[in-house]
Each structure stands twice: as structure tokens, then as C-alpha cells.
Fold these 3 entries.
Entry 1:
Amino acid sequence: MKTVAVCSGKGGVGKSALACSLATIIAKDEKKVLLFDANLALPNCDMYFGLELGCTIGHVVRDHRELRDAVMTTASGVDLISGGSGWKELALMSEQEVESLIQQVIEFGKSYDYVIFDCAPGLGSRVYPFLQQSDSCLLVTTGDATSLMDSYALLKSAWELKPTLHAGLVVNHVANAVQGRQLAKEVQTIVGQFLSRELDFWGSVRHDVTVAKCCAERKAFAESNPLCHASQDLVDTANAVMGEAVSETIELSMLDRLKNRFSKSAEPEEETAAA
Ligand SMILES: Nc1ncnc2c1ncn2[C@@H]1O[C@H](COP(=O)(O)OP(=O)(O)O)[C@@H](O)[C@H]1O
Ligand SMILES: [Mg+2]
């Protein structure tokens, strides 16, 4: 079982939308996936799957219900455990209480291939325990300068907490793959220089109106629109989470095309000269 914490420095960068669709793509690959909405008192994943909340983590914590009672299975086969929306009992949990809850979830999650934590934004006692218990951190950023800077700060802190944590960066809301790779390189360079560590690139996801439309319709975009730009892009990320290096084909072929184009315009003269 692999545990992945989906994190970000800033809120609203697309963690929940990507986490739900990522879980869907991985589940389609015949893997058993448990998605845990780690935004305990302000969950959103249920909405992205169009589910109505019944038994939640709120009931597990307050009423000592079993974790298995809180599992909701989505149409794509992902098992989701959600927090309780607006539950004071969850909002006020201490770090130790969160830690012991996570222990229960990890124990329960042993029958799954992947346990994905969709974390709250930023740092602090609501995020650290999830990072501590995760094998890897999928760090979501946008190209916004503040989001890039906060991603660096989150990583710095996460590695102080858990030096063995594997981290992969996903750049959301990009115009194209080349822009995504460039933005990731900026963060990777800073991380290399100041933290002397390597940050993996786990792909970029284009800004895609289908994502917002699916969100409004309470659907995971990769499920209802597997061919939209964002779904296609997220397949690379899913492969990276499952241990495969992100393919550079798209942008290399784009770079190759550009190179070809420029070299072709120079070719006739060279050919003529050679002839
Ligand atoms: N690639 C994208 N293209 C267009 N809209 C997106 C994209 N990613 C996320 N969104 C939208 O951004 C909003 C915030 O996303 P959400 O996943 O809830 O953020 P977070 O969990 O980081 O707070 C949602 O309305 C979502 O549909
Ligand atoms: Mg969220």
C-alpha cells in the first residue's frame, strides 16, 4: 500500500479536483484506491463525486462508529472517506487526535493499493500528521509567483519533518505542457540550490473549462470527460504516482517540431552548398 498526500501552499489551486480525478484514473488501472478527504471539517471530495454525506469521520470521531461505515464507493470504484462538513468536533481536534485517526486510517487502508489524502491547504497541525504518514507528497501549484514560492516553503518544512518523504510537483492551470515544464524547472532549480534536494516533476494540467463545468455538475472530470485536456494531462501524473517517470514526449516532440522547422528553413542553402 502506498500513501500519497496531495498538498499545496495555497488553497484553491486544484488539489481536490485533481485528487478525485487522479484517484479515478488510478482505480481504472485495476488498483484499489482509498481517497481520504483530509480537509476534515471542510470536505469537498464528496461534491466532486456527486455523493451525499452519510456516515463521516465526524461520526467515527464523535460516535465511535467504525471507519468501514464511513466508506462511500464512487461510480468509478474509488472508495472515499469524507470528513463532516462544518463539524466543530473535527475542526477542534488536537494534533494528537488527528495522528491517532490517521493511524486508524493507515491500518484500515492496508487492503488498498493506494491511500490518497486530499489535504487542507498550507502547513500546520492539520497537514503535518498526514505528511508524516505518507510515502510521497504530490505538491500542487499554479504558475502564480506566490503559489510557486509557497510550494517551495511547504517542501522545505515537509522535508524538515520527514526527510525521506518523496515529492512530486504538479503545475495546474497551465496554458500548455511547455509552460508547465518551465514553471516546474524554476521550482526544481530553487529546491536544488537551497535545499540540495531533487524534486520530481509529476506533470502539468492545462486550464480547462471542462474541470470547472464538472465541478458545478458534481462530477470527477476524468470520469465524465476522460478525453478533455485536463484528463489527458492527469494520466501522466497518475503514472508518476504509480512509479513511472513523466513522459517528456509531448514537449520534446513540440521542441523537435520547432527545431525541425528552423533547421528546415536553413536546409535548402546547406543542401545547395553541399551539392
Ligand atoms: N485545470 C483546471 N482548469 C480549470 N479549473 C480548474 C482546474 N483545476 C481546478 N479548477 C477549479 O478550481 C476550483 C478550485 O479547485 P479545488 O480543487 O477545489 O481547489 P483546492 O482543493 O486546492 O482548494 C474549482 O472550481 C475547480 O473546478
Ligand atoms: Mg480542496
Entry 2:
Amino acid sequence: MLNNDNLGSSPTAARIGIVGGGLAGLAAAVALVDAGQQVDVFESKSRLGGRATSFEDPRTNELIDNCQHVAMGCCTNFLDFCDRTSVRHLLRRDTKLHFFSSDGRRSDLSAVKCLPAPLHLGASFMRLSYLSFAERVRICRGLNRLAQSRNLDTKAELTIGAWLRADGQSEHAIRCFWEVVLVSALAESLERASFVAARKVFVDGFLRANTACHVYVPIVPLRQLYDKVAAHLSNCKASIHLRQSVGRLAVATDKVRLPLRDVAAREYDFVVVATDARRISDILPFELSDLVDSANSITSSAITSLHLWFDRPIFDLPHAVLIDRLSQWIFAGPSPPVDAQDSSSHYYQVVISAAQDLRGRDRESVLDEVLTDLRATWSYAQQAKLLDWRMISEPHAVFSVSPQVERHRPPQRTSCPRILLAGDWTRTGWPATMEGAVRSGYLAAEAILAQLGLDRPQVVPDLKPSWLARWLRLT
Ligand SMILES: Cc1cc2nc3c(=O)[nH]c(=O)nc-3n(C[C@H](O)[C@H](O)[C@H](O)COP(=O)(O)OP(=O)(O)OC[C@H]3O[C@@H](n4cnc5c(N)ncnc54)[C@H](O)[C@@H]3O)c2cc1C
């Protein structure tokens, strides 16, 4: 254990540099300042948030998110981070999921409060009208077999697509149920996504606990959340340095040297490298080059979002999930006007996960298909005039949750005790999500605090499983 008395200028606080102002870096910073440590955050861009961020639309000067970000009730660490930074009230909680079949029929999925998980969703699942009764029964049996799978190590190389076919799920059920849930949760196709990750989505997100499937949606552009996070950090005497790109770290006996592009290098007791996997090769010291090889083996998956402004509302729900369409999720508002004078526009975001196949397609043809989806689903959309639109494609949105990826995800502790990793791509047991990013930041903070002799768990436990889920061993 390192001696806290020898660390940094203050006798009690260690000096910790954090590279990257995405959710992982911010979560590490919040956990460390809450534990009384002295923290500096360095972010190369002009704004916080990394891949979960907002930008100013040059045409209207309005803040737009790069993509609608949602969390679920099972994201206990992300929600804890929102509580710690007083932004939870900026998230809306949708307790019902609204599904629309390709012919526009609506089915809602919601929990019955008095029934223990996994029975809580049974009644509304059995009413999903776009699946035949036989398909619903087969899916329930499949879910049970998936959840009851043991010895996951023996399935480490299996994709969920291969498993579903071996389980005898019909192509229609795969397209209209399994794909609908898993592609948006994992941002990967069923042919590439791992069995283990898919099982986690259903067990943690739907089957174990009554509130796990609630969906949390920010009601303001993400930038406004980060303003509050930054205020929390400043109140705790942390400093945030934007537009500061960190170069290659150097390790001395009791310090880490952190070089900055335009200003003098600084020295820290610990450094948390919380960038995405593709950036670490420029930052880690040569002693840690094995981690760079691992990170380079991690491949990406794409997410595309379309931002649409109509002259009238096109549906009257907070969100909708479209079945068997290119458009997967559509979110209504928050409603930045198409220009400052015009407050009569209605803003929607359409999200397309695992969007690799859109590469090479021209933007207008994607827009046309999305508009066709919306018009086929809602008659209001047929009359609505599209006032403006943007399409944002993030080719490296998340890492691909292939069966192979787990062996390349490093833990937060490295072989240099003073250098820690964080980021959704590090080993958290979660796919690339805001929850995974926050967990990784908390794990890095925990590892530093442990070295300082401060045994303070930061990672919040998963939701407590219902008695029935425990009895069924859905853990
Ligand atoms: C389009 C899209 C949609 C998504 N939708 C969802 C969703 O609905 N729900 C969900 O849970 N997750 C979603 N995600 C995933 C989620 O955004 C990420 O998992 C999460 O934001 C990753 O955070 P991070 O801190 O690990 O990494 P990042 O956000 O990548 O942060 C890393 C930061 O490090 C900075 N950096 C890099 N190099 C340097 C350097 N040399 N010096 C200083 N700073 C540096 C970067 O600028 C960046 O800000 C989505 C992602 C995308 C792209």
C-alpha cells in the first residue's frame, strides 16, 4: 500500500490526474473528490461528455445531442452518479415501453407492480399482438433456457444468433422480438453479439427485478447535465481543463508525469486514463504497451441518429419502438425549435443501432426510408411536413460485443500501480454503455482509494432480485 502521508502537496489528499472528460473520467473524478482527494480532469475537446454529448448546431445555434442516450433501471451506477451530481431530476422515467408493429398496431410492455420478477412482465408480454401465441410461448421458453444457462465459460465463443437458431426460434420471432431488444441494447447484430452479453440484457434488464426495465431519458440536452457535474466537481475543488490533450505519460518512482500540449507537464500521484480504447496508444507509457495490443484488438460498432423537425406532432407518446423497420427507436423532444423564432416545430430523434450496414448509403435514401417507416406507422406523420433534419453517424460509437471481446478488455488496475484505466471498454461485465463507463470510473477510483488505505467501495450493487428470481437462480 502507498503511504497517503507522502502523496501530493496536502498531507491528506493525493493528487490525481484524470485523462478524458467522458462519463468514465467524470465518474472517477466524482468518486475521488467525494473521498477527499485532489483531482484535475483533462479533456482534449472543448466540451465534456465524450461520446455522450451535445453540440451546437451551426445552422440554428441550438444544442443537439449526438444521439438520444437512454439508461435503464438496472443501471444502478449511472443512476447513482446522477444522484451524486444532482442531475437525476433531469431524467424522465418511462415505465411503459411502446412497441409498434410494421402495420402500425401498438402493444405496450409494462410491469405489474404486485407480481415478483420475472412474472411482472408476463401479462403484457403475452399481449404483444404482433407475435403469434405459439411464438410468445416459444419465446418464453427460450428466455427461460437463456436465463437458466449455467457454465457461461463454456459458451464464451457463442453468438446469440447461433444460440437462438439452435433453440428453434423462428425467423419472425428473431426479427420481431429478439433483435428488437438486443440490437438496441448491445448495438450489435445477433450474428456478431455474444451469447453472454445477450443473456445479461434479458436477466439484468427484464427478468430479475421489477424496476429494471424502466427507461430513463434525459429531458434536456446532455450538455446541461455536464454543467451540473462540472459545478459539483468545482464545489469539491476539482479543476476541469478543456482543450487539453494529454501526451504520453512517464512513470517515476513516486509520481506520474503528465505532459500537456501547450503548457508545462504536471506531476501526479495517480493518473486515470479514461479515454476510449483507440486513444490509449498515444498516452500509456511504453511499459504498458501490452495494453495497447489488447485495445487494438477491440473492434467498433456504429450508431446513426436522425434528428427530425416536423411542423406538427407525429405521435403522442414519449417514445416508440418500431418492429422490423430500419428505424428502431424514436424519441419525442425535448423540443429545440428549428430556429429561435419558430417555436411551432416538433423535434424527434430516430436511433439506428448496429448501423454498419448504412455505410456507403447516401443520407437522402436513409432519410426516405425513415420517413416511410414513420408514415406507415402513424397517420399524423403522413400529413406532417419535414421542416429540417440532420443525420449523425458515429462509426466508432461503441465496442462490438463479440464473443472474443472479453479477453481483450483489461481491468482498471495496470501493472503500474499509479496508472489506472477507465472507460466503457475496460472490464466491467457490461457492454459499452453509460453504466459501463460509470462503473469503470468507480472501479478505478476504488483501486486508488484502496492503495491509499481508504477502503471505500464505490460500485453500487445491482438491483436486488425478487424472491422468485432468486428462487429461479436468475443471477
Ligand atoms: C451515438 C451513440 C449512442 C449511444 N447511445 C447510448 C445509450 O442510449 N445508452 C447508453 O448507455 N450508452 C450509449 N452510448 C454509449 C455511451 O455513450 C458510451 O458508452 C459512454 O459515453 C462512454 O464513456 P467513456 O467515458 O468510457 O468514453 P468517452 O465518452 O469516449 O470519453 C473519453 C474522453 O476522452 C477524451 N480524450 C481522448 N484522448 C484524450 C487525450 N489525449 N487527452 C485528453 N482527453 C482525451 C475524449 O475527447 C473523450 O471526451 C452511445 C454512444 C454513441 C456514440
Entry 3:
Amino acid sequence: MDGVVFSIQRFSIHDGPGIRTTVFFKGCTLHCFWCHNPEGIRPKPDIQFFPERCIACNECVKACTHGATTLVNGIRVYDRSKCIVCGKCVETCYSGARILTGKHMTVDDVMSEVMQDRAFYETSGGGITLSGGEPIMQPDFARAVLERSKAEGISTAIETAGNVPWEFEERVLPFTDLIMMDIKHMDSAKHRWATGVPNERVLSTARHFAMTDKPIIFRIPVIPTVNDTVEEVGAIGSYIRDLIELRNQNGGDGDHTISLELLPFHKLAGDKYRSLDMDYRAKDLKIPTKAHMAELAEAAKTHQIEVRSR
Ligand code: SF4
Ligand code: SF4
């Protein structure tokens, strides 16, 4: 059993409680125009190229036998359409200008990294988090990693956008201790404009999750021009309140197991977009102020839900 992973981040403190190891799965069903991890959007491995690190040694040109990296009038030209992502040029690029992002890993490969910080999980209340991209696009691999983690006594969490068939989410749930799920907009047309897909399946997944007994942290990435208004965050807060009531009606304790977190937009991904020849449409957006984030949190709290804001 293997899957495509583009990063494993140890000592993560923003992907769930305690100290965690976050495993980033490659491939996503959404194309949010502000995505902080654009290298996770395409499902297959990619070459990232950072021209500012290039020392013009031309080793990549010699290594490439597919005509994807060539010299044209003395200048290196990379043609992504001809690249088969064999990685040979990366092996010769000692300056780190070329990076292979995404590789096939087995469950054993992933677990050998995850197990290194086991002592920290135990003392901090942390564990493993599957993120991405959309980890549940690879449901069998995700399930296998989570199942092995649980067998090792490691706490597990998933970060999902919820835009996958429900049976995919169902496959991982028995081995998931904590669900973290994004909700980006309540209006389906606006959701499609911002993410490339409508929101019906996302909201349906949220309702399905609410009818389980798993702790859920819903998250709103607060993005200017998309959802950074009191009205929109209030509307999502109202929806979360409905989900809490749904859980309560099903015999659960929605008030203490479902919460909301607001995550401010940031602009750290610009270099990554350039390295992948992707258009960074969020480059001119302004970062929300702390005061504005606090105002949005208050709007959500009016619906009697627990709200945290970074
Ligand atoms: S191998 Fe790396 S450093 Fe050398 S020319 Fe190619 S991209 Fe630049
Ligand atoms: S990954 Fe392979 S095909 Fe693509 S540019 Fe490098 S050497 Fe050429």
C-alpha cells in the first residue's frame, strides 16, 4: 500500500492539539485561489524550480534526456509539458534550485518518520495529522496510515475539505480521533468562484460528521474578497450551531465536541506558486488585522459556539 506525499512536517503545533507530525498528501479536489500549499493541489509529483537559487552550472541540462530542460541561446529553458518528472535533474542540482515535490511512500515509510517523535506526542497530547491537499482523496492509504498509528497508540487527526464521496470519509473514521474540516462559504455560487467547486457536497459531509460522535473543529480560512465579513462568518457560525443541535438531537454533546477556528489569510506561498508556474491570484489581498479577526470571532460567538482565532 502506498500513496503520494509531498511533505512530512515534524513538531507541528498548528495542526491539532499538542506536538504533531503532519503528513501532507498530494492532490486536492478544490482549487482555492489563495491556497497556502499549491504544491499539494496536483495529484502527481511535480518539479518546483526556484530561479533565484540557480548558479547556472547547466548540470540539469546535461541530465535531462527528455528535452524538458534545454539551453536556448545560452539560457536554460524548462518546458513543464515535456517533463516526465523523472527527478534526474533534481539529483544533479546541488544549489536546490530544483526540487521534486511529491513522492510515492509506503505506510512503513511514513510510520518510520512518525514514530521518531512518539515521546513528544505522549507528553504533549499530540499525535499524527493527515493534511494536504486533500488526504481523503487517497482513502485507502489514509486509512492504512491511521490504522497503523492507532495500533501504535498514537492519537490521530485528519484535515479535510469535505469535498469527496462520503464513503471515502467513512473509510477513515474508525481510526480518526479528531476531525478538522474547512467551511469556506455558505453560498454555493460564491464557493464555486473561490474554490472551483460548489459547496453542496462539503455541507453534506459536515452534516454527516455532525451525526457521528467524533470531536470536530470546523475552520474558516478568512480570505479578503471571499468571506472576511461579519455577515459571512456569522452565517457560517449559524450553520455550525445547527450542526451542534443536530448532534445534540442524536444523543451527542455537540456543545462540547464541535467548535470553530478562524485562520487568517497569509501570503507566504508566493514563491511556491512561481516555482510551479502557477498564477498566484491572491497576491494583492491584504492580511486581516488582529482587530478584524477578533470582530469576526465575536460574530461567530453570537451563535453560542466555542470559537478560537489565530
Ligand atoms: S542544475 Fe540547478 S543550479 Fe545548475 S543550472 Fe540547473 S537549475 Fe541551475
Ligand atoms: S524531471 Fe526529468 S524530464 Fe523533467 S526536467 Fe528534470 S530531468 Fe528532465
